[in-house]
């Protein structure tokens, strides 16, 4: 099949040994370290209390990242030099500027601030997780020294060798700490999403019944980072529901959330009154209430999602999403694609949902986990992995797999007449892409698999967010 990179000698790498060696790819293959400097005209992170503090917004940072002021009235003078709409807000939500268009300016009156440390963010969903954060220190004699390594050297227009060294030391420490957690089977976080759910019961006429409860739970996104997630049956993503063409289906949804909800089966053909859009197609499901969705599947395969629509801008980024599947997408067995003859007996050895998110309490994540809490994907030469990308987030995500090409076989659950190979696939909100990943003996090793918007995969503390790995082991070498 087509290859993505030169063939190298990668002999004798068992999966366990490969995962231990994952540092080689994490520290060098991504190549994500970006050194940024402070914008002209904002060279000082200190300003008098009475004067507005200049702040510049770009993708994706707030400059300076470290501010200081004297106790009293504090106002920010904001300039958006980016290409997207941004704002500035206190992280606790108590104060927020208006949304500022590219090239425009605005202000944020923070009122009278007592001595202390205040966290600032861009409150546009996903932007803070992408790096738009800053710290305001209010203290007598405001203008105290700022830790420029912690601030990503934003406080200096011309970083010194010492500042570069501090940044590098901080990055290396973060990389190595993340690596140590990642090699422990995805950070050994509590909770697993995408668990396949058998029917809760089957009625006399063959109807498959699935009982689903929506509630708020504690969810460990990465090692030690526990958030309040909105979850179906206590997991993020919720249960993976697999049904077949022509099946009769019921989903009984119990609402244990503090707000009303509904359930939309995105990409699945249902009658109008089962589309899950309150109050258009159904009544609100108020807290404590139950609603039953009932339909007969179409006579074809489909690949979709189920998620909240009512209060969806909060519920979905916070975790209320899951996979719904009808049958199997046809594979291009026996076909010649880009000069490569697909096996006539092509069979999937592993089917893998990759659900993407970028906002809310879950944040930048794959399958409800943030690196190093993501799980490495194990394979061996000859395996056929059918991976389904689902974008439940608010942003586009170009998903890039190193070295091993992806064969795109379906879009939004519809098999492509002309499948194609790619190493990077752009997945927009609501979209689904199905790809075949078929490693060979030339692919033995550990390969980065990540969103290629670099701020979605790395911050000043090292790798984070939408990063995992494909670990292709040598079947001729016993595990260490």
What does this structure look like?
The chain is mostly beta strands and 480 residues long. It has four helices and 33 strands. The chain has helices spanning 15-20, 23-29, 161-182, 312-315, and strands at residues 53-58, 61-63, 66-69, 72-80, 89-90, 105-113, 116-121, 133-138, 196-197, 201-202, 208-222, 225-232, 240-243, 248-255, 264-266, 290-296, 302-307, 321-326, 336-337, 340-341, 350-359, 363-366, 377-379, 385-391, 397-401, 406-411, 414-422, 424-427, 432-437, 445-451, 458-459, 462-463, 467-472. It has a six-stranded mixed beta sheet, with no helix packed on it. It has a five-stranded mixed beta sheet with strand order 9-13-18-17-15, with no helix packed on it. Strand 11 and strand 12 (225-232) form a beta hairpin. The longest helix is centred in the middle third of the chain and has 22 residues, at 161-182. The protein is globular.
């Amino acid at each position: 099949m087509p290859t993505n990179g030169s063939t190298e000698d990668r002999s004798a790498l068992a999966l366990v040994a490969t995962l231990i060696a994952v540092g080689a790819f994490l520290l060098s293959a991504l190549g994500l370290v970006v050194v940024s400097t402070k914008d002209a005209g904002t060279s000082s992170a200190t300003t008098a209390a009475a004067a507005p503090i200049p702040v510049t917004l770009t993708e994706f940072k707030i400059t300076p990242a470290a501010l200081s002021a004297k106790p009293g009235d504090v106002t920010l003078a904001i300039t958006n030099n980016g290409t997207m709409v941004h704002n500035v807000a206190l992280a606790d939500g108590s104060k927020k500027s208006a949304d500022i268009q590219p090239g425009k300016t605005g202000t944020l009156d923070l009122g009278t601030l007592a001595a202390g440390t205040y966290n600032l963010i861009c409150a546009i969903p996903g932007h803070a997780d992408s790096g738009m954060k800053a710290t305001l220190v209010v203290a007598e004699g405001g203008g105290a020294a700022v830790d420029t390594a912690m601030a990503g050297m934003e406080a200096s227009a011309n970083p010194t060798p010492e500042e570069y060294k501090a940044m590098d030391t901080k990055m290396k420490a973060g990389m190595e700490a993340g690596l140590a957690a990642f090699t422990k089977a995805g950070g050994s976080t509590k909770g697993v999403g995408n668990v396949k759910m058998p029917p809760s019961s089957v009625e006399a006429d063959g109807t498959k019944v699935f009982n689903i409860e929506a509630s708020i739970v504690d969810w460990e996104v990465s090692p030690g980072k526990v958030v309040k997630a909105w979850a179906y049956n206590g997991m993020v993503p919720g249960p993976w529901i697999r049904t077949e063409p022509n099946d009769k289906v019921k989903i009984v949804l119990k609402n244990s959330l503090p707000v009303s909800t509904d359930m939309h089966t995105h990409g699945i053909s249902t009658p109008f009154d089962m589309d899950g859009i309150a109050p258009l197609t159904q009544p609100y499901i108020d807290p404590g209430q139950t609603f039953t969705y009932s339909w007969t599947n179409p006579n074809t395969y489909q690949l979709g999602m189920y998620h909240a629509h009512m209060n969806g801008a909060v519920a979905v980024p916070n975790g209320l999403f899951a996979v719904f599947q009808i049958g199997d997408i046809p594979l291009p067995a026996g076909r010649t694609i880009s000069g490569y003859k697909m096996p006539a007996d092509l069979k999937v050895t592993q089917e893998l949902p990759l659900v993407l998110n970028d906002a809310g309490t879950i944040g930048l994540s794959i399958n409800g986990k943030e690196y190093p809490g993501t799980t490495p994907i194990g394979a061996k030469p000859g395996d056929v992995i059918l991976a389904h990308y689902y974008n439940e987030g608010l942003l586009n995500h170009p998903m890039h797999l190193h070295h091993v090409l992806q064969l795109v076989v379906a879009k939004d659950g519809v098999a492509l007449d002309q499948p194609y190979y790619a190493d990077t696939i752009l997945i927009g909100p609501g979209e689904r892409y199905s790809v075949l990943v078929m490693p060979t003996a030339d692919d033995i090793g550990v390969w980065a698999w990540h969103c290629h918007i670099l701020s979605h995969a790395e911050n000043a503390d090292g790798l984070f967010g939408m990063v995992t790995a494909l670990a292709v082991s040598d079947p001729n070498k016993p595990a260490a």
